[in-house]
Design goal:
Length: about 100
């Protein structure tokens, strides 16, 4: 570790990003600890990696409309929970 610190006066963006993304270690704490040891953190590179991660997350989101159900709701449900702990009810449709 000491050899690494002597050779590199900077915490790379990749290392700072891995600490943040994988272990949840905040960037500001990484910067504080680096500063205590006379190092700097590549924050510009970190922000670039964060932007790439955000773009990947947005691209991975599903963009489809999901219908809640096609069940006929014209028959209202009567709530009986104040009067009884269990009740029988018909099942009109079961879909998977």
């Amino acid at each position: 570790m000491e050899e690494y610190l002597n050779e590199t006066p900077e915490v790379s963006a990749a290392d700072a990003f891995e600490l943040y993304d994988t272990y949840g270690f905040p960037l500001d704490l990484t910067e504080l600890m680096a500063r205590e040891r006379g190092l700097i953190v590549d924050t510009a590179g970190f922000e670039t990696l964060m932007d790439l991660q955000r773009a990947r997350a947005r691209a991975a989101q599903k963009k489809e409309i999901i219908a809640a159900s096609n069940v006929d709701t014209s028959h209202p449900t009567r709530f009986v929970g104040f009067d009884q702990l269990a009740a029988l009810a018909p099942c009109w449709k079961l879909s998977m």
